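Subject: Sanity check before I submit

Could someone independently write out the C-alpha coordinates for this chain? I want to compare against mine line by line before I put it in a report. The sequence has 479 residues.
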Amino acid sequence: MMKVCLIVEGAYPYITGGVSSWIQQMLTRFSDIEFVIQTLVVDRNEKREFKYKIPDNVSEIHELYLLDDDYIDNKKKKFKLKKKEYEALESLFFGTEVDWDGVFKFFQNTTVSLDKLLTSKEFFQMTKNYYNKNYENAVFTDFLWTMRSMYLPLFLLLKNKPVKADLYHSMSTGYSGVFGSMCKYLYNKPLLISEHGIYTREREEEIIKAKWVRGLYKDLWIQQFHKFSSCCYDFGDEVTALFEGAREFQIDLGCLREKTNVIHNGVNVSDFEVLPQKDVNDKYINCGAVLRVTPIKDVKTMINAFYLAKKQVPNLKLWIMGPLDEKPKYVEECRQLIKDLGAEDVIFTGRVNVKEYLGKMDFTVLSSLSEGQPLVILEGFAAKKPCISTNVGDCFSLIYGENDQFGDAGIVVPVMNVEKMAKGMVYLAKEEKIRVQMGLNGYNRANNFYQNDDVFHKYYDLYNKLTDKRRQAVKGKVR
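---
Independent answer below. Compare away.
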Protein backbone atom coordinates (compact mmCIF):
# COMPACT_ATOMS: atom_id res chain seq x y z
CA MET A 1 0.00 0.00 0.00
CA MET A 2 1.29 3.46 -0.91
CA LYS A 3 1.96 5.69 2.11
CA VAL A 4 1.40 9.41 1.66
CA CYS A 5 2.32 12.07 4.20
CA LEU A 6 -0.09 14.99 3.92
CA ILE A 7 1.30 18.27 5.31
CA VAL A 8 -1.29 20.86 6.26
CA GLU A 9 -1.00 24.33 7.79
CA GLY A 10 -3.86 25.91 9.72
CA ALA A 11 -6.59 23.65 8.34
CA TYR A 12 -7.52 19.96 8.49
CA PRO A 13 -8.70 18.40 10.73
CA TYR A 14 -9.28 21.28 13.16
CA ILE A 15 -10.66 24.00 10.89
CA THR A 16 -13.47 23.67 8.39
CA GLY A 17 -13.40 25.33 4.99
CA GLY A 18 -12.75 24.65 1.33
CA VAL A 19 -9.25 23.18 1.74
CA SER A 20 -10.25 20.96 4.65
CA SER A 21 -13.36 19.71 2.84
CA TRP A 22 -11.23 18.94 -0.20
CA ILE A 23 -8.76 16.97 1.95
CA GLN A 24 -11.57 15.00 3.59
CA GLN A 25 -12.96 14.03 0.19
CA MET A 26 -9.55 12.96 -1.05
CA LEU A 27 -8.83 10.84 2.03
CA THR A 28 -12.19 9.13 1.67
CA ARG A 29 -11.85 8.49 -2.06
CA PHE A 30 -8.28 7.17 -1.90
CA SER A 31 -9.19 4.30 0.44
CA ASP A 32 -6.38 2.10 -0.93
CA ILE A 33 -3.73 4.63 0.16
CA GLU A 34 -2.43 5.00 3.72
CA PHE A 35 -2.23 8.61 4.86
CA VAL A 36 -0.26 10.21 7.66
CA ILE A 37 -1.29 13.77 8.53
CA GLN A 38 1.31 16.27 9.70
CA THR A 39 -0.76 19.29 10.71
CA LEU A 40 0.90 22.61 11.62
CA VAL A 41 -0.73 24.50 14.49
CA VAL A 42 0.31 27.50 16.55
CA ASP A 43 1.03 25.91 19.93
CA ARG A 44 0.26 22.87 22.03
CA ASN A 45 -1.82 24.79 24.59
CA GLU A 46 -4.52 25.86 22.13
CA LYS A 47 -7.77 23.89 22.51
CA ARG A 48 -8.55 21.90 19.38
CA GLU A 49 -11.06 19.28 18.32
CA PHE A 50 -11.53 17.29 15.13
CA LYS A 51 -14.11 18.85 12.84
CA TYR A 52 -14.22 15.79 10.60
CA LYS A 53 -14.68 12.04 11.01
CA ILE A 54 -11.20 10.70 10.33
CA PRO A 55 -11.25 7.95 7.65
CA ASP A 56 -9.83 4.52 8.52
CA ASN A 57 -6.96 4.86 6.03
CA VAL A 58 -5.47 7.72 8.09
CA SER A 59 -3.01 5.85 10.29
CA GLU A 60 -1.49 8.78 12.21
CA ILE A 61 -2.06 12.47 12.91
CA HIS A 62 0.92 14.45 14.20
CA GLU A 63 0.83 18.05 15.40
CA LEU A 64 3.78 20.31 14.59
CA TYR A 65 4.00 23.51 16.65
CA LEU A 66 5.17 26.88 15.36
CA LEU A 67 5.36 28.30 18.88
CA ASP A 68 6.50 26.04 21.70
CA ASP A 69 8.83 25.65 24.65
CA ASP A 70 12.26 24.30 23.83
CA TYR A 71 12.77 21.24 26.00
CA ILE A 72 16.43 20.57 25.16
CA ASP A 73 18.46 20.72 28.36
CA ASN A 74 22.09 21.08 27.35
CA LYS A 75 23.18 23.84 29.68
CA LYS A 76 26.56 22.21 30.21
CA LYS A 77 27.21 21.86 26.50
CA LYS A 78 29.05 24.81 24.98
CA PHE A 79 27.32 26.18 21.91
CA LYS A 80 29.44 26.62 18.80
CA LEU A 81 28.48 26.63 15.12
CA LYS A 82 30.81 25.06 12.62
CA LYS A 83 31.84 27.20 9.66
CA LYS A 84 29.49 25.47 7.20
CA GLU A 85 26.63 25.58 9.70
CA TYR A 86 27.16 29.29 10.23
CA GLU A 87 27.23 29.94 6.48
CA ALA A 88 24.06 27.90 5.92
CA LEU A 89 22.11 29.75 8.61
CA GLU A 90 23.40 33.13 7.50
CA SER A 91 22.27 32.37 3.95
CA LEU A 92 18.71 32.37 5.33
CA PHE A 93 19.11 36.05 6.19
CA PHE A 94 20.39 37.23 2.83
CA GLY A 95 18.09 34.92 0.91
CA THR A 96 19.58 35.19 -2.57
CA GLU A 97 20.97 31.64 -2.53
CA VAL A 98 19.76 29.93 0.62
CA ASP A 99 21.66 26.74 1.46
CA TRP A 100 18.51 24.80 2.40
CA ASP A 101 20.41 21.50 2.36
CA GLY A 102 22.77 22.88 5.00
CA VAL A 103 19.88 24.31 7.05
CA PHE A 104 17.95 21.02 7.00
CA LYS A 105 21.07 19.03 7.83
CA PHE A 106 21.91 21.26 10.79
CA PHE A 107 18.51 21.02 12.48
CA GLN A 108 18.10 17.30 11.83
CA ASN A 109 21.60 16.27 12.91
CA THR A 110 22.27 18.69 15.76
CA THR A 111 20.76 18.67 19.23
CA VAL A 112 20.47 22.38 19.78
CA SER A 113 18.65 24.57 22.26
CA LEU A 114 16.90 27.29 20.28
CA ASP A 115 17.28 29.62 23.21
CA LYS A 116 21.04 29.20 22.98
CA LEU A 117 21.02 29.50 19.22
CA LEU A 118 18.90 32.64 19.06
CA THR A 119 20.87 34.35 21.87
CA SER A 120 24.27 33.16 20.65
CA LYS A 121 27.12 35.35 19.47
CA GLU A 122 26.85 33.71 16.05
CA PHE A 123 23.16 34.60 15.60
CA PHE A 124 23.94 38.10 16.85
CA GLN A 125 26.77 38.41 14.33
CA MET A 126 24.79 37.18 11.31
CA THR A 127 21.95 39.53 12.29
CA LYS A 128 24.43 42.40 12.55
CA ASN A 129 25.93 41.57 9.14
CA TYR A 130 22.51 41.61 7.51
CA TYR A 131 21.55 44.78 9.40
CA ASN A 132 24.72 46.65 8.37
CA LYS A 133 24.20 45.73 4.72
CA ASN A 134 20.50 46.58 4.46
CA TYR A 135 18.91 48.29 7.49
CA GLU A 136 21.50 50.31 9.39
CA ASN A 137 19.09 53.22 9.89
CA ALA A 138 16.78 51.07 12.02
CA VAL A 139 17.06 50.60 15.78
CA PHE A 140 19.28 47.54 16.11
CA THR A 141 17.71 46.13 19.29
CA ASP A 142 14.27 46.13 17.64
CA PHE A 143 15.80 44.57 14.54
CA LEU A 144 17.47 41.81 16.55
CA TRP A 145 14.29 40.88 18.42
CA THR A 146 12.34 40.85 15.16
CA MET A 147 14.82 38.43 13.61
CA ARG A 148 14.62 36.15 16.65
CA SER A 149 10.82 36.10 16.59
CA MET A 150 10.77 35.61 12.82
CA TYR A 151 13.08 32.60 12.83
CA LEU A 152 11.78 30.88 15.96
CA PRO A 153 8.74 29.23 14.24
CA LEU A 154 10.87 28.02 11.33
CA PHE A 155 13.59 26.62 13.58
CA LEU A 156 11.03 24.89 15.83
CA LEU A 157 9.47 23.27 12.80
CA LEU A 158 12.76 22.07 11.36
CA LYS A 159 13.71 20.30 14.60
CA ASN A 160 10.86 17.81 14.08
CA LYS A 161 11.70 14.39 12.69
CA PRO A 162 9.43 13.71 9.71
CA VAL A 163 7.52 10.48 9.24
CA LYS A 164 8.84 8.25 6.46
CA ALA A 165 6.49 7.90 3.49
CA ASP A 166 6.47 7.08 -0.22
CA LEU A 167 5.24 10.55 -1.16
CA TYR A 168 4.96 13.91 0.57
CA HIS A 169 2.04 16.17 -0.33
CA SER A 170 2.00 19.71 1.04
CA MET A 171 -1.21 21.72 0.82
CA SER A 172 0.67 25.01 0.42
CA THR A 173 4.09 26.57 0.31
CA GLY A 174 4.94 28.51 3.49
CA TYR A 175 5.89 26.57 6.60
CA SER A 176 4.24 23.34 5.47
CA GLY A 177 5.97 23.50 2.11
CA VAL A 178 9.37 24.05 3.74
CA PHE A 179 8.72 21.07 6.00
CA GLY A 180 7.82 19.03 2.91
CA SER A 181 11.04 20.19 1.28
CA MET A 182 12.99 18.92 4.28
CA CYS A 183 11.22 15.54 3.94
CA LYS A 184 12.30 15.43 0.30
CA TYR A 185 15.89 16.27 1.31
CA LEU A 186 16.03 13.67 4.12
CA TYR A 187 14.39 10.70 2.44
CA ASN A 188 14.75 11.48 -1.28
CA LYS A 189 11.06 10.85 -1.87
CA PRO A 190 8.84 12.83 -4.25
CA LEU A 191 7.22 16.08 -3.08
CA LEU A 192 3.91 17.34 -4.46
CA ILE A 193 2.81 20.88 -3.61
CA SER A 194 -0.83 21.91 -4.13
CA GLU A 195 -1.72 25.56 -3.75
CA HIS A 196 -5.42 26.28 -3.32
CA GLY A 197 -4.40 29.91 -3.03
CA ILE A 198 -1.03 31.52 -3.67
CA TYR A 199 0.32 31.39 -0.11
CA THR A 200 3.03 34.00 -0.62
CA ARG A 201 0.60 36.53 -2.08
CA GLU A 202 -1.92 35.92 0.69
CA ARG A 203 0.68 36.41 3.43
CA GLU A 204 1.93 39.54 1.68
CA GLU A 205 -1.58 41.03 1.66
CA GLU A 206 -2.07 40.15 5.33
CA ILE A 207 1.25 41.67 6.38
CA ILE A 208 0.64 44.89 4.48
CA LYS A 209 -2.67 45.32 6.34
CA ALA A 210 -1.40 44.04 9.71
CA LYS A 211 -1.12 46.35 12.71
CA TRP A 212 1.24 44.07 14.67
CA VAL A 213 4.13 44.77 12.31
CA ARG A 214 5.19 48.20 11.05
CA GLY A 215 7.55 49.90 8.65
CA LEU A 216 10.58 48.00 7.38
CA TYR A 217 9.58 44.93 9.42
CA LYS A 218 6.73 44.35 6.99
CA ASP A 219 9.37 43.99 4.26
CA LEU A 220 11.33 41.52 6.39
CA TRP A 221 8.32 39.25 6.88
CA ILE A 222 7.32 39.46 3.22
CA GLN A 223 10.86 38.54 2.18
CA GLN A 224 10.73 35.60 4.58
CA PHE A 225 7.70 34.10 2.83
CA HIS A 226 9.26 34.69 -0.58
CA LYS A 227 12.26 32.65 0.60
CA PHE A 228 9.88 29.90 1.66
CA SER A 229 8.16 29.79 -1.72
CA SER A 230 11.52 29.64 -3.52
CA CYS A 231 12.50 26.68 -1.35
CA CYS A 232 9.24 24.86 -2.05
CA TYR A 233 9.31 25.44 -5.79
CA ASP A 234 12.92 24.25 -5.95
CA PHE A 235 12.35 21.03 -3.98
CA GLY A 236 8.88 20.24 -5.32
CA ASP A 237 8.64 17.64 -8.07
CA GLU A 238 5.18 18.82 -9.15
CA VAL A 239 3.32 22.00 -8.21
CA THR A 240 -0.41 22.28 -8.83
CA ALA A 241 -2.63 25.35 -9.02
CA LEU A 242 -6.39 25.64 -9.27
CA PHE A 243 -6.46 27.86 -12.35
CA GLU A 244 -4.20 29.26 -15.02
CA GLY A 245 -3.81 32.69 -13.40
CA ALA A 246 -2.55 31.08 -10.19
CA ARG A 247 -0.14 28.95 -12.18
CA GLU A 248 1.30 32.10 -13.79
CA PHE A 249 1.75 33.58 -10.32
CA GLN A 250 3.74 30.50 -9.29
CA ILE A 251 5.95 30.89 -12.35
CA ASP A 252 6.42 34.63 -11.64
CA LEU A 253 7.52 33.67 -8.11
CA GLY A 254 10.22 31.41 -9.51
CA CYS A 255 8.67 27.99 -10.11
CA LEU A 256 9.80 26.23 -13.28
CA ARG A 257 6.94 26.09 -15.77
CA GLU A 258 7.53 22.40 -16.47
CA LYS A 259 6.82 21.60 -12.81
CA THR A 260 3.46 23.34 -12.80
CA ASN A 261 0.09 21.83 -13.51
CA VAL A 262 -3.50 23.13 -13.31
CA ILE A 263 -6.03 20.88 -11.59
CA HIS A 264 -9.38 22.58 -10.96
CA ASN A 265 -11.52 22.21 -7.90
CA GLY A 266 -14.55 20.01 -8.36
CA VAL A 267 -18.01 19.26 -7.04
CA ASN A 268 -20.29 16.21 -7.09
CA VAL A 269 -23.08 17.79 -9.10
CA SER A 270 -25.32 14.76 -8.60
CA ASP A 271 -25.22 15.29 -4.80
CA PHE A 272 -27.16 18.54 -5.24
CA GLU A 273 -29.90 17.27 -7.58
CA VAL A 274 -32.45 16.64 -4.82
CA LEU A 275 -32.43 19.39 -2.18
CA PRO A 276 -35.06 20.79 0.19
CA GLN A 277 -36.71 23.72 -1.58
CA LYS A 278 -38.16 27.01 -0.42
CA ASP A 279 -41.69 26.80 0.93
CA VAL A 280 -44.30 28.17 -1.48
CA ASN A 281 -45.44 30.56 1.24
CA ASP A 282 -41.94 31.95 1.74
CA LYS A 283 -42.12 35.45 0.27
CA TYR A 284 -38.48 36.29 0.99
CA ILE A 285 -35.72 36.54 -1.59
CA ASN A 286 -33.05 34.48 0.15
CA CYS A 287 -29.40 35.43 -0.29
CA GLY A 288 -27.02 32.76 1.05
CA ALA A 289 -23.39 33.14 2.11
CA VAL A 290 -21.51 29.92 2.92
CA LEU A 291 -18.32 30.89 4.74
CA ARG A 292 -16.27 30.98 7.89
CA VAL A 293 -17.06 34.24 9.68
CA THR A 294 -13.53 35.63 9.61
CA PRO A 295 -11.93 38.90 8.42
CA ILE A 296 -10.57 37.32 5.20
CA LYS A 297 -14.20 36.71 4.15
CA ASP A 298 -15.01 40.41 4.69
CA VAL A 299 -18.47 39.71 6.10
CA LYS A 300 -18.84 43.36 7.11
CA THR A 301 -18.88 44.51 3.48
CA MET A 302 -21.58 41.90 2.78
CA ILE A 303 -23.69 43.09 5.72
CA ASN A 304 -23.39 46.73 4.67
CA ALA A 305 -24.28 45.83 1.07
CA PHE A 306 -27.28 43.80 2.22
CA TYR A 307 -28.47 46.72 4.38
CA LEU A 308 -28.44 49.04 1.34
CA ALA A 309 -30.06 46.46 -0.93
CA LYS A 310 -32.86 45.74 1.55
CA LYS A 311 -33.91 49.38 1.39
CA GLN A 312 -34.89 48.73 -2.24
CA VAL A 313 -35.99 45.10 -1.79
CA PRO A 314 -37.73 44.90 1.62
CA ASN A 315 -38.29 41.14 1.37
CA LEU A 316 -34.57 40.38 1.02
CA LYS A 317 -33.10 38.04 3.66
CA LEU A 318 -29.42 37.21 4.27
CA TRP A 319 -28.39 33.77 5.51
CA ILE A 320 -24.79 33.55 6.77
CA MET A 321 -24.01 29.84 6.95
CA GLY A 322 -20.79 28.65 8.52
CA PRO A 323 -18.76 28.27 11.72
CA LEU A 324 -18.61 31.13 14.20
CA ASP A 325 -15.87 29.83 16.49
CA GLU A 326 -12.71 30.66 14.53
CA LYS A 327 -12.67 34.43 15.16
CA PRO A 328 -15.18 35.14 17.96
CA LYS A 329 -14.17 38.80 18.23
CA TYR A 330 -14.86 39.36 14.54
CA VAL A 331 -18.21 37.58 14.84
CA GLU A 332 -19.16 39.93 17.66
CA GLU A 333 -18.11 42.92 15.54
CA CYS A 334 -20.37 41.70 12.73
CA ARG A 335 -23.28 41.31 15.14
CA GLN A 336 -22.64 44.80 16.51
CA LEU A 337 -22.59 46.21 12.97
CA ILE A 338 -26.00 44.69 12.30
CA LYS A 339 -27.28 46.21 15.54
CA ASP A 340 -25.78 49.63 14.76
CA LEU A 341 -27.32 49.65 11.28
CA GLY A 342 -30.65 48.48 12.57
CA ALA A 343 -30.54 45.81 9.88
CA GLU A 344 -33.21 43.15 9.88
CA ASP A 345 -33.41 39.63 8.46
CA VAL A 346 -29.73 38.70 8.86
CA ILE A 347 -29.44 35.16 10.15
CA PHE A 348 -26.29 33.42 11.41
CA THR A 349 -26.93 29.69 11.22
CA GLY A 350 -23.55 28.52 12.52
CA ARG A 351 -22.09 25.32 11.10
CA VAL A 352 -24.73 23.51 9.03
CA ASN A 353 -25.13 20.97 6.27
CA VAL A 354 -25.31 23.39 3.33
CA LYS A 355 -27.36 20.90 1.30
CA GLU A 356 -30.25 21.54 3.70
CA TYR A 357 -30.16 25.26 2.87
CA LEU A 358 -28.85 25.82 -0.68
CA GLY A 359 -32.06 24.71 -2.39
CA LYS A 360 -33.96 27.36 -0.42
CA MET A 361 -31.67 30.17 -1.56
CA ASP A 362 -32.34 32.39 -4.58
CA PHE A 363 -28.69 33.29 -5.06
CA THR A 364 -25.42 33.13 -3.17
CA VAL A 365 -22.88 35.83 -2.30
CA LEU A 366 -19.13 35.77 -1.61
CA SER A 367 -17.40 38.89 -0.29
CA SER A 368 -13.90 37.47 0.28
CA LEU A 369 -10.68 39.48 0.16
CA SER A 370 -8.79 36.44 -1.10
CA GLU A 371 -9.78 33.08 -2.60
CA GLY A 372 -8.44 30.39 -4.87
CA GLN A 373 -11.26 28.66 -6.68
CA PRO A 374 -14.10 28.64 -4.14
CA LEU A 375 -15.96 25.39 -3.64
CA VAL A 376 -18.93 27.37 -2.35
CA ILE A 377 -19.47 28.89 -5.81
CA LEU A 378 -19.32 25.45 -7.43
CA GLU A 379 -21.72 23.99 -4.86
CA GLY A 380 -24.09 26.86 -5.53
CA PHE A 381 -23.84 26.16 -9.26
CA ALA A 382 -24.59 22.48 -8.63
CA ALA A 383 -27.76 23.66 -6.85
CA LYS A 384 -28.52 25.98 -9.83
CA LYS A 385 -27.91 29.15 -7.83
CA PRO A 386 -26.09 32.13 -9.34
CA CYS A 387 -23.44 33.95 -7.31
CA ILE A 388 -22.42 37.53 -6.61
CA SER A 389 -18.69 37.41 -5.88
CA THR A 390 -15.76 39.72 -5.38
CA ASN A 391 -13.13 39.61 -8.11
CA VAL A 392 -10.64 37.38 -6.33
CA GLY A 393 -8.90 34.16 -7.33
CA ASP A 394 -10.69 32.40 -10.17
CA CYS A 395 -14.15 33.78 -9.37
CA PHE A 396 -14.30 35.84 -12.59
CA SER A 397 -13.75 32.75 -14.76
CA LEU A 398 -16.16 30.63 -12.75
CA ILE A 399 -18.95 33.16 -13.11
CA TYR A 400 -18.32 34.44 -16.64
CA GLY A 401 -16.68 31.34 -18.10
CA GLU A 402 -13.49 30.72 -20.06
CA ASN A 403 -14.53 30.80 -23.71
CA ASP A 404 -17.45 28.44 -23.12
CA GLN A 405 -20.99 28.81 -24.43
CA PHE A 406 -22.88 28.76 -21.16
CA GLY A 407 -23.13 32.48 -20.35
CA ASP A 408 -23.00 34.49 -17.13
CA ALA A 409 -23.66 32.64 -13.89
CA GLY A 410 -23.79 35.66 -11.62
CA ILE A 411 -22.12 39.02 -11.08
CA VAL A 412 -18.51 39.88 -10.21
CA VAL A 413 -17.86 43.04 -8.17
CA PRO A 414 -14.69 44.75 -6.87
CA VAL A 415 -13.32 43.85 -3.45
CA MET A 416 -14.76 45.86 -0.52
CA ASN A 417 -17.21 47.72 -2.78
CA VAL A 418 -20.42 47.98 -0.77
CA GLU A 419 -22.36 49.92 -3.41
CA LYS A 420 -21.69 47.53 -6.31
CA MET A 421 -22.36 44.47 -4.21
CA ALA A 422 -25.66 46.03 -3.07
CA LYS A 423 -26.53 46.84 -6.69
CA GLY A 424 -25.88 43.21 -7.64
CA MET A 425 -28.13 41.99 -4.84
CA VAL A 426 -30.96 44.29 -5.96
CA TYR A 427 -30.59 43.22 -9.59
CA LEU A 428 -30.74 39.48 -8.89
CA ALA A 429 -33.55 39.95 -6.38
CA LYS A 430 -35.72 41.83 -8.87
CA GLU A 431 -34.91 39.97 -12.09
CA GLU A 432 -36.24 36.48 -11.46
CA LYS A 433 -35.98 35.18 -15.05
CA ILE A 434 -32.37 36.33 -15.37
CA ARG A 435 -31.58 34.91 -11.92
CA VAL A 436 -32.96 31.50 -12.85
CA GLN A 437 -31.14 31.47 -16.19
CA MET A 438 -27.85 32.41 -14.50
CA GLY A 439 -28.35 29.52 -12.09
CA LEU A 440 -28.77 27.13 -15.03
CA ASN A 441 -25.66 28.59 -16.69
CA GLY A 442 -23.63 27.87 -13.56
CA TYR A 443 -25.06 24.37 -13.33
CA ASN A 444 -24.07 23.59 -16.91
CA ARG A 445 -20.58 24.98 -16.38
CA ALA A 446 -20.01 22.93 -13.23
CA ASN A 447 -21.48 19.82 -14.81
CA ASN A 448 -19.19 20.05 -17.85
CA PHE A 449 -15.91 21.33 -16.41
CA TYR A 450 -15.80 20.94 -12.62
CA GLN A 451 -16.82 17.39 -11.76
CA ASN A 452 -15.13 15.93 -8.68
CA ASP A 453 -14.46 12.56 -10.29
CA ASP A 454 -12.23 14.19 -12.90
CA VAL A 455 -10.32 16.16 -10.26
CA PHE A 456 -9.52 13.23 -8.00
CA HIS A 457 -8.65 10.95 -10.91
CA LYS A 458 -6.00 13.48 -11.87
CA TYR A 459 -4.55 13.52 -8.35
CA TYR A 460 -4.64 9.74 -8.10
CA ASP A 461 -2.78 9.49 -11.41
CA LEU A 462 -0.29 12.11 -10.19
CA TYR A 463 0.40 10.13 -7.02
CA ASN A 464 1.12 7.01 -9.06
CA LYS A 465 3.18 8.92 -11.60
CA LEU A 466 5.42 10.46 -8.92
CA THR A 467 5.97 7.23 -6.99
CA ASP A 468 6.52 5.23 -10.20
CA LYS A 469 9.14 7.76 -11.30
CA ARG A 470 10.86 7.30 -7.97
CA ARG A 471 10.79 3.50 -8.22
CA GLN A 472 12.21 3.63 -11.74
CA ALA A 473 14.99 5.96 -10.60
CA VAL A 474 15.93 3.57 -7.78
CA LYS A 475 15.96 0.60 -10.18
CA GLY A 476 18.21 2.55 -12.52
CA LYS A 477 20.71 3.16 -9.74
CA VAL A 478 20.70 -0.50 -8.74
CA ARG A 479 21.56 -1.55 -12.28
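---
OP: Matches mine. For the report I'm noting this point. The CA atoms of residues 94 and 130 lie 7 Å apart.
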